[in-house]
Amino acid sequence: MPEKSARKLERLAQELRAQHGRKSSEQTDNRFLPLTYAAERLSISKSWLYKHHRELPFIIRIGGRMKVSRKKLNEWMKQKGGSMP
Fold it and tell me: Which residue, of 12, 22, 41, 47, has the greatest Cβ tally within 10 A?
């Protein structure tokens, strides 16, 4: 019985190591970053982002904080084609 459990644990550990080693670009692209990241990318102030956060699909509330979805910001910038707010 203990051998069976040890083998299961080892298999799980191998699977986790394999998954951790190959993150997809989608996983790494969809990070949540501080508002300063979007402010710098868009060349606008953080206060402007705070005022207009309800209109911007890339700003997400996590708990009491606002974060920027890197993936959604990139999609939004491509859609806008360079025309900033």
Answer: 41
